[in-house]
Specification:
The complex is a heterodimer of chains A (about 400) and B (about 350). With about 400 residues, chain A is α/β, with parallel strands linked by helices. Chain A is built from 16 helices and eleven strands. Chain A has helices at about 1-10, 15-45, 75-85, 100-105, 105-110, 155-165, 175, 180-190, 195-200, 225-235, 255-265, 280-295, 300-320, 345-350, 365-370, 385-390; strands spanning about 60-65, 120, 125-130, 135-140, 145-150, 190-195, 215, 245-250, 270-275, 330, 375-380. Chain B starts with a helix and ends with a helix. Classes of the chains: A alpha/beta (about 400), B mainly alpha (about 350).
């Protein structure tokens, strides 16, 4: 056989030797490829198994958290607690009071001792220290607000937690969902803003929103809010005498835009704009306090903050049982981007003492993840991709 | 379109015997064409002033514009939001159309436009630098983004020109190729910044690169009006040279056109126009390509007439598309998306049906 093939390849056969040579070469090549593919398939299926594909090969712990849990909302603490439970188990140390937390100076100073950004004035107005790119820190005085246009999901989440606190129900519980008074109040306070597709992607609040009355801005960043539409929204919401404000992050808000939005809101009968944001956990508490005060939930704000601080302290103390134990984390959003290692998400990682090498804010390729061997993979609950796709095994 | 051109601009059929009569008639018809476009522009102004996301009646708008009536809230919307936006769209449409016409004629290439020469990408990169890293923010504040866009317009056109220049001069084809390469480079850098930007910054960059008049108030108008008017006048002042260059650079040179200085002045005018427009509205594609072609088909290749028509017609087109983009959809969409969605099919239609006629 070998001799014959050699002869054929050498074109020893007369009458169309070249033609025969080509065909034989193709057949030999096909056989070699077939054999190679068979061997590779057998080797792969025997030695690795189907579940070892992609990130399954890491055999890492997989945790799920709610999107939007890394900004200035009470969800930050819920996210921390959820991460602890999924990586270490139920926090063993519970039953603390806020005085216990305060007494732990290292903890309190680092994670809870925030500088308040809101002052209650004698005339019952509030002075809030806002942050924007254009003005930096700027004090803004606002009366008590009835309704808000929330550009960004964090503000509506804060409002939701505060309203739940007022009504004495746990957020996202059936008690909250079935509470008609809560629903009415939430819909009145969160009157519009961030587009509903984004609300659905980032929160679990869509079911609380009435699509018929909600003033959808069609955008989720304040800088892209159509100015005429904003004017129309404020005008419509304040028509019944309600005090309406626009709230959002001022991270990309230059002076001209700041003044323009403020002027539009006030010109249409609203009370002004509020740009607040947080860069760490304790800054989140400051934002919750400011927003809660302006929305008229002063007392409930204090109780909510204390509960959150106690919950955080419980996780903090429980983590002491794992001193010296560290984890490398890969935290992916539904767009396949990782979280960045800055801001509140960085503070969460610092709280746990976890390695953030893989948190680049961009996409990280599979090879790099496999090379770095993270032992905790975090995904969002709202991430609807199939598990194999998330694990890059599809 | 062909009937219009053959009826009103029968340049090719002019008989030497009645040249004077022909020129008289031609001037009359040119004046008629300009009058029509001015009428369209005026109509567009009123139409776009009564269209928007804020609910106010047309009579309410007219009352505010001419009688100073209306409530304070309505006046704010009409005078401080809608009016500067419409005027900015006029400016940008005029700037893009004039620049597109100049580029197409200068390079004798129907596909030439500021975006093909990489100028828009350069401006987008400059703006993205300011948005992402706050470069220039401390010194220029609100003007940092437009100033960086403006600066990178000049940087890009300088780079393109230097890359294309050889000891034998600057060939148009080489210049176009350099523009494509430099534009791709800056485009890559913008993508890189989008990739590493946080969510808020990313939204700003993406929205900005899609083009929008949402942020155009009186300050934006004030910022763009001087460079755009100066640039458009500069380009318009070279209409005679463009007529001759369109017939061939060698021929134009023999007719006394200083090709080098004309090209430099046109580059400068284009940079002023594009810098001014990109600075306030971001990058808007296809306007600089479509409008000159449409008017070239309508009135022929004489730049002395084409230029004012492109400026006025481009302004109308831009304002009309902006009105559609902000009010015709449940969610206002960036105007740059709409110009591409409308422009590309229209351009393909024109290209397939009137290929030869366009450049005759």
């Amino acid at each position: 056989m070998i001799i014959n093939i050699t002869k054929l390849l050498q074109g020893d056969i007369s009458n169309g030797g070249t033609y025969v040579k080509k065909n034989v070469a193709i057949v030999v090549l096909a056989v070699v490829l077939l054999l190679g593919a068979t061997v590779a398939t057998v080797f792969y299926s025997q030695d690795r198994g189907n579940n070892a594909k992609g990130l399954y090969a890491l055999d890492a712990a997989i945790a799920y958290v709610d999107a939007g849990g890394t900004s200035a909302t009470p969800k930050v603490v819920d996210t921390i607690e959820a991460l602890y439970e999924q990586v270490y188990g139920e926090p063993p140390h519970k039953g603390y009071t806020v005085d216990d937390a305060r007494a732990d100076a290292a903890f309190w100073e680092r994670y809870c001792g925030y500088d308040s950004i809101v002052t209650v004035n004698e005339d019952d107005t509030f002075t809030v220290r806002t942050q924007s790119q254009g003005y930096g820190a700027k004090d803004v005085t606002l009366p008590r607000t009835d309704r808000m246009l929330s550009m960004g999901t964090m503000y509506m989440t804060v409002a939701y937690y505060l309203i739940c606190e007022k009504h004495g129900v746990s957020p996202y519980s059936s008690g909250a969902r079935d509470n008609e008074a809560l629903l009415v109040e939430f819909r009145n306070v969160v009157a519009g803003g961030t587009d509903l597709a984004y609300v659905e992607q980032e929160t679990e609040l869509l079911e609380y929103i009435d699509r018929g009355t909600y003033r959808d801005a069609g955008q989720h960043t304040i800088g892209n809010y159509d100015r005429e539409r904003l004017a129309d929204d404020v005008s419509a919401l304040s028509a019944d005498g309600s005090a309406v404000m626009l709230v959002g992050t001022g991270r990309t808000m230059d002076k001209e835009s700041y003044d323009a939005y403020d002027s539009i809101v006030k010109g249409q009968g609203g009370i002004g704009v509020l740009f607040v944001t947080a860069s760490d956990i304790k800054g989140s508490f400051a934002c919750i306090e400011a927003l809660g005060s302006v929305l008229g939930y002063g007392g409930h704000t204090s109780s909510l903050l204390e509960r959150l601080q106690v919950k955080l302290y419980s996780v903090y103390k429980s983590l002491e049982d794992h001193a010296g134990e560290t984890h490398k984390v890969y935290w992916e959003s539904s767009q396949r981007n990782t979280l960045g290692s800055s801001g509140v998400s960085k503070d969460i990682m610092t709280f746990f003492g976890w390695d953030t090498t893989l948190l680049t804010q961009g996409q990280v390729d599979t090879e790099a993840i496999l090379r770095e061997k993270p032992d905790v993979l975090i995904f969002y609950n709202a991430d609807k991709r199939p598990m194999d796709e998330k694990m890059r095994a599809a | 379109m062909t009937w219009f051109r053959s009826r009103y601009f029968p340049l090719e059929h002019a008989d030497s015997a009645d040249t004077r009569s022909y020129h008289r008639s031609r001037r009359r018809r040119a004046a008629a064409a300009i009058a029509i476009v001015v009428t369209v522009l005026t109509a567009t102004f009123f139409l776009t002033m009564i269209v928007g996301n804020f609910h106010i009646s047309p009579s309410g708008v007219l009352d505010i514009l001419f009688m100073g009536g209306g409530s304070a809230g309505d006046r704010q919307v009409v005078v401080d939001i809608r009016l500067p936006r419409v005027l900015c769209s006029f400016l940008v449409g005029a700037a893009l159309s004039a620049s597109g016409l100049a580029m197409q004629s200068l390079f004798k290439n129907p596909m030439a436009s500021p975006s093909v020469l990489g100028i828009s990408s350069g401006a987008a990169f400059g703006a993205s630098l300011a948005i992402s890293f706050g470069i220039g923010g401390a010194a220029l504040g609100y003007y940092a983004v437009p100033a960086m866009a403006f600066l990178f317009c000049f940087v890009t056109i300088g780079a393109v020109y230097l890359l294309a220049r050889t000891r034998y001069g600057v060939a148009s084809l080489t210049l176009l190729l350099s523009g494509i390469a430099v534009g791709a480079f800056f485009g890559g850098l913008v993508s890189l910044m989008q990739y590493v930007a946080n969510e808020d910054v990313l939204a700003s960059i993406v929205y900005w690169t899609m083009g929008s008049f949402n942020k155009c108030g009186w300050s934006a108008f004030g910022m763009a009006v001087v460079p755009i008017v100066a640039g458009a006048l500069l380009i318009a002042s070279r209409s005679r040279e463009l007529n001759l260059i369109s017939a061939g650079e060698e021929q134009a040179s023999n007719m006394g056109v200083d090709i080098k200085s004309t090209r430099t002045l046109l580059f400068l005018g284009t940079s002023l126009c594009i810098g001014g427009s990109v600075a306030i509205s971001g990058t808007i594609g296809f306007v600089g390509l479509i409008v000159p072609h449409v008017f070239r088909m309508l009135v022929g290749p004489d730049h002395k007439l084409l230029m004012p028509l492109c400026i006025l017609g481009g302004a109308s087109f831009m304002a009309a598309v902006d009105a559609v983009s902000k009010a015709a959809f449940a969610i206002p969409i960036p105007v740059g998306i709409l110009t591409c969605l409308l422009g590309a099919p229209f351009f393909i239609y024109v290209m397939k049906t009137r290929r030869r006629e366009m450049w005759e």
